[in-house]
Amino acid sequence: MGKADSLRLLLGSEDKKNPYTDQELAQKLAISRGEATLLRQRMKIPDSRERRRPVLCEAIRQIMDSDPYLAKRTVTEKLRQMGFAVSRFTTEQLLQNDTYRQSPEAAVPPGIQQPVAEYGGKEITGMAFGHLIGQKGSLFPAIEQAKAAILYPPKGLHTLLFGATGVGKSDLAEAMYRFAVETGRLNATAPFVMFNCADYADNPQLLLSQLCGHVQGAFTGAERPKEGLIEKANEGILFLDEIHRLPPEGQEILFYLIDKGRFRRLGETESLRQASVMLIMATTELPSASLLATFRRRVPMVIELPSLQERPLSERLLLIHHFLRHEAQRTGNTLAIDADAVRALLLYDCTGNVGQLSADIQVACARGFLNLITGGNRNISITVADLPAHARRGLLKVRHQKDKLDKLRVTGYEIAPGKDNMVYMDELYTWPREIYSYIEERYGELSRQKFSQKELNRIIGAELEDKLRQWIKRADETAELVNKADLYKVVGRPIVDIVESMLERAESMLGHANERIVVGLSIHLTETLKRLKQNKAIMNPHLEKTKHEYAREFAIAQDMAECFARHTGIRLPEEEIGFITLYLTMYCRQDNEGRVGILVLSHGHVAAGMAEVANRLLGVNHAKAVEMSLDESPETALERTVELVMQIDEGKGVLFLVDMGSLADFSTRITELTGIPVRSVGPVYTMMVIEAVRRALLPEASLTELADSIGQSCIGMTSVKQELLHNPSGKPVILSVCITGQGAALQLQKELERKLGQAGGVEIICLGLADRQSFTQQVRQIMSTRTVQAVVGTLDPHIPGVPFITVEQVLSNNLPSVFKPMAYKPASLQDIIKEELIFFPNQEASKPQIIELLAESLISRNLVKPQFAADVMKRELIGVPVLSLRVAIPHGEDPRYIQQTSAALAVFPEAVPWGENYRVNIVCMLAVTADGKEIVQDLGERLTNDDLVERLLGTQSAMEVREVLLQDL
């Protein structure tokens, strides 16, 4: 059978509610995704979304006809209950402008028959498995096997469920029973009997009695006959958990029951009893190691369930939501959980799987409930501190899982009992409240990176627009945003009333203002009033662009500001009017396209490093990478690239930054396969990636403009192949570059020779840029035999992989380490052990007070950023870091908050409480940069020396502490 015929056969039997994606088709046909897409297109078969669209529209029509005022979230939930694996976004798209009414009939591709899945004349809906999270994901293969086991004629297949403790074997067994009833395989009154073989594992005779029953006098104490579980489960299902605890004689009894449908009660010798029972058994042990071979051969269906670790984070998040809803319902209280607690639950090592996750959430809710009872809180509030200690450690993995968490949009939640929806409190309240602090922090970061004022304003302005657009999207996705009563509690009724009066002035543009803009402006203006009363400056890098590009909205915002002044007596500055304009603009223009995607592609392990540098410098996560190993085929790399392009495309296409060879040809092929516009530019180098990401963040950037501008920035170097750019064995050289290669280049050469002397034997060569061909040939020749350490000059020639240093840096002696190989000296203990950072606090000081004292001493000397203190406290919640029973070493986890390797110490002659199980004498707060390994090891070696610690406890001044710690150095 050809591939085309196989494809028709597959599509003819697919679930019309959830058609096969191209990836699923590729897996079933054992071909690449790209080949599957091309085959489907050649056969003029629509993609999975279009094939599902008519069926989905019909379902939405039925739902909306029954109740036209249902919320989008509720419609989505009903669709999922009907068996559609559908997102709320898809539902919203079809509900918009009654789109779902525009496709009355399904468009069936030529040659494809739409199947009707039936059993005994009834359509199989599979609703019995609908409550299982992951039914269309990680549990899909297991559920399909389970359905097959139930439906197999004449009376189903005996089944063994295999998986670690807590994966959900019991839940699946119960769902199989409901499915058997739902399909008519079992009568609605058929029994479902559960038994855990471990309960009587220490008494085999009693266990067999429970299973088979016994006759009177079968053993001591058997005073009357007893019916066993097999008889109770007759004409139904018997579920035996932990079947590996059943002794061999018990397995033989089941073996006979499976083979003959007969068994004997314990103590019976002659008569045999008849039973028609389907067995579902579960075990955590390998069947081959724990069950008799003769018994295993009689159980044809073995279903293995994945561990929680093997399931995607998206399913784990749904499980967390489910358990939180359950606890809110059980307690009858609104339950709020903060974002860090959700992240910890998502990432910690949950060895007990779904069962343990449920138990750990119950523990956290119990602690929150205790706080509600004893502290007078109105709701159950869960933070990281309420989680079990092992669950808190999940926060240690946040940095390594940032991409996955960003895709899930992890935030805090508030769940009311009896309601399915969750209010995303963090994003609804936090972003409008933190606009000012965000601007100040980003302004500081970008200023240190030497961005011009104009570039700085453009970057932050674009980020503000993007973040506000995301906030509005999140608000739209929340069915019940925030009611007035809740908003009054947060900001007070007067400010809400003022905002609504202001928005009446904007009716010509907004029409009737809904809750999302009322919430955003109310919270934002509350923070504005606080700031103005404290005489803090209001900084708005977006102001000039706002006034120029959104003149109409700015005029309306000025009118709104006049309304604000009449109510409050406070005149808002022009910068603040710019923020009001931004809210109005984003509210009205929320359907703007996204940004151009950036994808770095390389042979070998190069691309990921360049993408990471660009993302960290610009404080974003926009650049992605594909690295093609030397033994990987171009087709495999193409398939991986297609997947990533489809993920990162935001509607404007994707720019490829490639190094060489076959990767440069990917863009055209991917556009043909996916329809997504893709352009390639190369050869790539780090500065090119940084510039591409910076420009892609600007809202007006287009793919064509970005590709052309980035490509033109490589002055004469596009013909230089990447493989010629590095010759590690060659002698080091620095290129001094100006337009002609004379004047400025010669002066720079002399200045560098004076500053560097003979350090490292680096030769300085002058080159001119004016003659493109000559310059390219000279660079190629030099790089074929030498190692170019850097380029210095008035213009950056953008040589791939070579750093560029400006004239100003040379003249101001601000040279990077590549220029000063002999000057670099790592920090030492003598450098960081300073008397002004050594303290003898009061013995009564609490742990938070000690941490605050030490952190503030580092912050006040600009050794760490203000966020360092909170980072330290967050790390303490995860687990108490100690060197010994007498020495604690509080520290942060995020290197972005550390300016310089440093340490602050507190000495206590009498031990003080430090966490639940520790009392310490020395608290050493560490702030260590990436090059601080030697510092940590040297200091750790000294602070674990009992004799030295004893001497420290006998000191009476900071000078003595320093002398003891630095002795023998």
UniProtKB/TrEMBL annotation:
Residues 831-968 form the PTS EIIA type-2 domain. Keywords: ATP-binding, Nucleotide-binding, Transferase. Residues 595-725 form the PTS EIIA type-4 domain. One of its GO terms (cellular component) is membrane. One of its GO terms (molecular function) is transferase activity. Residues 490-594 form the PRD domain. Transmembrane segments: none annotated. InterPro entries: AAA+_ATPase, P-loop_NTPase, PRD, PRD_sf, PTrfase/Anion_transptr, PTS_EIIA_man-typ, PTS_EIIA_man-typ_sf, PTS_EIIA_type-2_dom. Residues 132-366 form the Sigma-54 factor interaction domain. It holds the Pfam family PTS_EIIA_2. One of its GO terms (biological process) is phosphoenolpyruvate-dependent sugar phosphotransferase system. This is PTS system fructose IIA component.
